[in-house]
Design brief:
Layout: E1 5-11, H1 18-23, E2 31-36, H2 43-49, E3 53-56, H3 62-74, E4 82-85, H4 97-107, E5 111-115, H5 128-145, E6 156-159, H6 160-166, H7 175-185, E7 190-194, H8 210-228
Parallel strand pairs: 1-2, 1-4, 2-3, 5-7
Antiparallel strand pairs: 4-6, 5-6
Organism: Aquimarina celericrescens
Protein name: Glycosyltransferase family 2 protein
InterPro entries: Glyco_trans_2-like, Glycosyltransferase_2, Nucleotide-diphossugar_trans
Length: 230
């Protein structure tokens, strides 16, 4: 019996891109959940028209949106076997979801990160703060935990039971690194799959602003140091 897979897409003003993202998600997915994170454009109606379940999370923050999606999944049956997180800006290639879930389905891996490796990245698709932040965070995780991560990529798949056991709490930019750190601390199995990456549609809310980049960096480092000395 094939696994039940659900996708959570946090989205803030992604009216230009969200339909492309939803339409390219493989049909092995049973439900696509778009969490509108206080969008002020037509993101919600466009996502609904494209066939997604649309939720609203007025509290702004990437983690807030992800937690809202998890809350919805917990309230419905049947529960999924795998949850995939994907951004709504069309920078990832949604059809690569099959590559992402394969290690879970075939090898019983707990979590898979889509790694935005340089050879598969479109030129200019990642800003300098993103590239440096990824290098710093993954280097520190290697130093403190002997981790093998190379990216904090938002395109990721995780067993639903594993996700629940992590007790995720971060409400903003620390969501991705919190998940990876907790997987390390609890000694769950993980791997990375190289994925393609292209320039997003629209302006990034994190890397597109100095304030966003700094705040994200502080959040990521604070999680790493918290777990390194606890």
């Amino acid at each position: 019996m094939p696994p039940i897979i659900k996708v959570i897409i946090p989205a803030f003003n992604e009216e230009e891109s969200i339909a492309y993202v939803i339409k390219e998600i493989p049909n092995i997915v049973s439900e696509v959940i778009v969490v509108s994170n206080n969008s002020t454009d037509t993101t919600e109606s466009v996502a609904k028209k494209a066939g997604a379940t649309v939720l609203q999370e007025p509290q702004k923050g990437y983690g807030y949106a992800c937690l809202k999606g998890m809350e919805y999944i917990a309230s419905k049956d049947p529960k999924p076997d795998i949850v995939v997180f994907l951004d709504g800006d069309y920078s990832d290639y949604p059809q690569e979801l099959t590559k992402l879930v394969a290690p879970i389905v075939n090898d019983d891996i707990d979590m898979v990160i889509g790694s935005r490796v340089k050879r598969l990245r479109e030129s200019g698709s990642m800003t300098f703060p993103q590239i440096f932040g990824n290098w710093l965070a993954t280097s520190l995780m290697k130093l403190f935990f002997n981790a093998k991560f190379t990216d904090l990529g938002p395109f990721r798949a995780i067993k639903y039971d594993t996700l629940l056991s992590l007790g995720m709490v971060d409400k903003t930019y620390g969501w991705t690194v919190e998940m990876q750190l907790k997987v390390l601390k609890k000694r769950y199995s993980y791997t990375e799959v190289p994925v393609r990456y292209k320039k997003r549609i629209g302006v990034s809310k994190v890397s597109g602003t100095i304030k966003g980049a700094i705040f994200a960096g502080v959040k990521i480092l604070s999680w790493i140091f918290k777990y390194s000395f606890s």
